[in-house]
Design a protein that fits this description.
The chain is α+β, with helices and mostly antiparallel strands. The chain is built from nine helices and 13 strands. Strands 1, 2, 3, 4, 5 and 6 form a six-stranded antiparallel β-sheet that branches. Strands 7, 8, 9, 10 and 11 form a five-stranded mixed β-sheet that branches. Helix 1 crosses helix 4 (about 70-85) and helix 2 packs across helix 4 (about 70-85). It comes from Aromatoleum anaerobium.
Length: about 400
């Protein structure tokens, strides 16, 4: 989840100013002893605001610190996320954490969002507890595979969901998700789905297997890919998929955002190979930077070799602290070459961040240096969406 702030108008309220003061104090602290003071007061202030669903104050403080380029911005953002995903106030004797297990998927058909059956939940529970979580962790799963549009929107909604799922974990039961009225998910070639859960341990105990002797993140990911992936596959029929290591909700979501960029390129090359019988060596890629005020993303236009029509496109958004100094074109080129695409054109002049007026799809760079709509040849039938969620 990219931490990009849009500046809002209006003055700061007293509570926003207090958050700014506390976060700045923590960022400038010179000792762990001083950290504890700022930590305690910042957590108390945030817990009140989250309980009151005061999203406006949280965002106002973040906006101010971000525009001021303050080191307090990262401190405040980290603390807001931490409090939102840890269900403060639900149980003083326990640590509760909302976790996410993202799944990257692509398909020529619709990527489903779906209710997860009790049998599938039971299998997923076994493999999460065996390969990802620490010993003796209590676990509650939400019985739905969420699209990005269906996740809790905002910090307060996340905190409310974490509390509800955390209470389920304390009670030893999974959480049923009512799907009536849930937002629809648009169709994309490549997208992410999220399995959400809450874990509960006595205060100060290990949450994940890699916190225990002999465990590691790499080992957990390897086993989760084999065992958890096999459990998730039936939930995504007609899809190719790749799992992301389950982790704290915001950390896992950001890792999914990062991993989805190369995955979308690999999916696009595979899609063109299947749809147009065009192996990677018969494709050409055009990479270009796209700006609004600042550099926002790179877009990749894909053509058949020797032809100028863009038949497909991929968006590579900049995430977190990435900017013009990040070597994104080299990363994109490395992924393309790993896929077997050898003819790659890098355009270095600025392109506007424009979209199709009719369908809203991004416009992609062509070999001639123009931005155009990606269009599959008519003989290949009904077009499949050609951009990443």
């Amino acid at each position: 989840m990219k931490r990009t702030r849009q500046k809002r108008r209006g003055g700061l309220g007293r509570e926003a100013e207090q958050l700014i003061w506390l976060a700045t104090g923590l960022a400038e602290s010179g000792s762990r002893a001083e950290d504890h003071y700022w930590d305690r007061h910042l957590c108390a202030a945030l817990d009140r605001l989250l309980a009151d669903s005061d999203e406006e104050t949280l965002n106002a403080a973040l906006d101010h610190l971000y525009s001021a380029d303050s080191p307090g911005y990262d401190e405040l953002a980290d603390f807001i996320e931490s409090r939102a995903e840890s269900a403060p106030g639900v149980s003083p004797e326990h640590d509760i954490l909302l976790i996410a297990a993202p799944v990257l998927a692509w398909s020529r058909y619709r990527i489903p969002t779906t209710t997860v059956s009790p049998a599938a939940l039971a299998n997923l529970r076994v493999h999460l507890q065996a390969h990802v979580l620490a010993d003796h962790v209590k676990l509650a799963l939400a019985d739905f595979l969420f699209s990005p549009d269906q996740l809790p929107q905002g910090y307060s909604a996340t905190a409310e969901f974490a509390a509800k799922l955390g209470q389920s974990a304390l009670s030893g039961r999974d959480l049923h998700i009512e799907t009536e009225g849930m937002p629809e998910t648009a169709q994309f070639l490549s997208d992410t789905r999220y399995l959400l859960a809450a874990i509960v341990v006595p205060k100060g105990e290990a949450l994940f297997g890699w916190q225990q002797a002999g465990g590691s993140r790499d080992q957990s990911l390897s086993q989760w890919r084999k065992q958890g992936g096999a459990c998730l596959m039936p939930l995504l029929p007609g899809c190719a998929m790749e799992v992301v290591l389950p982790d704290a909700y915001f950390a896992a979501s950001r890792q999914a955002d990062k991993d989805s960029r190369p995955y979308a390129i690999r999916a696009s090359v595979a899609f063109l190979g299947a749809e147009m019988e065009a192996p990677a060596g018969n494709l050409r890629a055009v990479i270009a930077p796209f700006h609004e005020r600042d550099l926002e993303e790179y877009r990749v236009g894909l053509t058949l070799r020797g032809k100028d029509e863009v038949v497909h496109g991929v968006v590579w958004p900049l995430l977190g602290a990435e900017d013009d100094n990040a070597d994104s074109p080299a990363q994109i080129e490395a992924v393309l070459r790993d896929c077997g695409v050898t003819e790659i054109v890098n355009l270095d002049h600025r392109f506007p961040l424009e979209y199709c007026d009719d369908c809203g799809a991004p416009l992609y760079p062509s070999p001639e240096g123009e931005i155009v709509h990606a269009e599959m040849p008519e003989e290949h039938g009904e077009p499949t969406p050609r951009h990443l969620h």
